[in-house]
Amino acid sequence: MFNLIANAAAAAGAHDVGMSLMPASMCVKKEGENPYGLVPALCEGGIVSQITFLVLLIMFIGTLYILFTKLFEQRKVLAQYKAVRTQFWKAGSLRDGATKLDKNSAWRQLVDDAILAEDQHAKMTDKLEAHDWMHGSLQRSEDTINSKLAGGLPFLATVGATAPFVGLLGTVIGIYRALINIGLAGSASIDKVAGPVGEALIMTAIGLLVAVPAVLAYNWLQSRNKRIAERLSGFSTDLLANISSNGAVRPAVMTSTSTQASAKATKTAPAAAKPTTATTSTTTTTRK
């Protein structure tokens, strides 16, 4: 059985010697050039190693694309949150505040869904508890936004988990082909074995270079998504409280002016305490 498998594999290896995705001129060995490297390894490994390298390249390009697109999307959502804290709650009603938010922003979607849920609850013949209806509607809106923000992250997780093994497959194929060529040449000296086997390990290194950035990008983007989800949940709770109280309950609006005033008050408090201490010490000395 093992002899049949080995003979079939050897026949397949001999059959696809001429099959290659690379131009023939790139695989021609010229005098004076380094016979080892990535390109010689791909030529030595044949079409299987070349397809493996192409898959890893697609994984790497996809990782970079998702990283930068999601990073831009997250930065946009976080920047729009500043307008929510400084402008939205200054409006007299939710409808007026919605006009101060970007039309396609996640925060505007939450406000629109809250207003729509309030209008739909008023039309219900079977009076459902308003709080339960509003909470469920806002939760669905949050889930939709979080699902959109998480798009592409499963691809990063898949690349991080499979890229090393894809590279290892390329290494195994490269070593297999190198050993076959060494056997056909009839020479097993160290210079004939170390070079082809060593260059086949390049595919494993490429697999790791693709997997590590994908894992780092996944964890970083996931942590930023959690931060956005927490702010969405807090904003949703504020909307629910505002609607349930007919606009009476709303969070404190934080502006740059109020932040500076609070900082000045914090710095002034210790300074104001020092004269009091000095006065107390003077009084005690006089009584003595």
Give a structural overview.
With 288 residues, the protein is mostly helical. It has 2 domains: 246 residues, no CATH class; 33 residues. The N terminus and C terminus are likely disordered.
Uncertain segments are 1-6, 8-17, 271-288
What is the helix fraction of residues, given as a range? over 70%
As a percent range, the share of strand residues is: under 5%
Q: Major beta sheet, specifics? A: none
- Report the count of strand segments: 0
What class do helices, strands and sheet pairing give? mainly alpha
Oligomer: single chain
Shape: rod-shaped
Instruction: Encode the helix/strand succession as letters.
Output: HHHHHHHHH
* Total domain modules: 2
Number of DSSP helical runs: 9
Average pLDDT, all residues: 77
Distance separating the two termini: 109 Å
Radius of gyration: 33 Å
List the helices and strands and how they pair.
Blueprint: H1 2-15, H2 38-86, H3 94-98, H4 106-122, H5 130-149, H6 153-185, H7 190-200, H8 202-244, H9 256-287
Helix pairs in contact: 2-6, 2-8, 4-5, 4-8, 5-8, 6-7, 6-8
Compact overview of the structure:
This protein has two domains: 9-254, no CATH class; 256-288.
Task: Note the main attributes of this structure.
288 residues, 2 domains, mainly alpha, 9 helices
